[in-house]
From TrEMBL:
Pfam families: Acyl-CoA_dh_1. This is Acyl-CoA dehydrogenase/oxidase C-terminal domain-containing protein. InterPro entries: Acyl-CoA_dehydrogenase-like, AcylCo_DH-like_C, AcylCo_DH/oxidase_C, AcylCoA_DH/oxidase_NM_dom_sf. Belongs to the acyl-CoA dehydrogenase family. It comes from the Eukaryota. The lineage of its organism: Eukaryota, Metazoa, Chordata, Craniata, Vertebrata. It comes from Micrurus lemniscatus lemniscatus.
Amino acid sequence: GPDGQIQQGSRGLSLFYLKIYEDGKLNGIKIQRLKEKLGTRPLPTAELLLDGARAHLISAEGKGIACIANMLNITRIHNTIFAVHHMRRIVDLARDYATKREAFGKPLKDHPLHMQTLARMEVQSQAAFLLAMELARLLGLEETKMATEQEKHMLRLLTPLTKLYTAKQVTLSLMP
């Protein structure tokens, strides 16, 4: 906080710009551990120890979360759209495969249980797409200062939930 006291939670966090390399040397940055996460695995997230790192304050003290909240929403929506795309692709591949693969003497598409599974996948894919489009609409309203208080609350609530749901769904879809 402004008085130098540590505050619990995110209220005391500030936003800084930190160069990775300072004078040709690593700027006091040490990786503690890589985090397990859903979503963008090729882009690792790590817990860092900043020991003697030199940085520049960007936000007002204690206002770091407010400065990056919009960016966090955008990255969550990006992850949602990426997951929805893959859900759709998986449904398309499964539907095509059902016309080519035979089991018990007939194509998979002629087996009611298989078609029920494809129908469930289709509904989940379409629902995820509609949620993603609603998030994009709400974000657009918020960015243009046209969102009502209820729409702002819906954006804050739905964004992390939709990102979590779609990441889990696409991960489950990819499992053998």
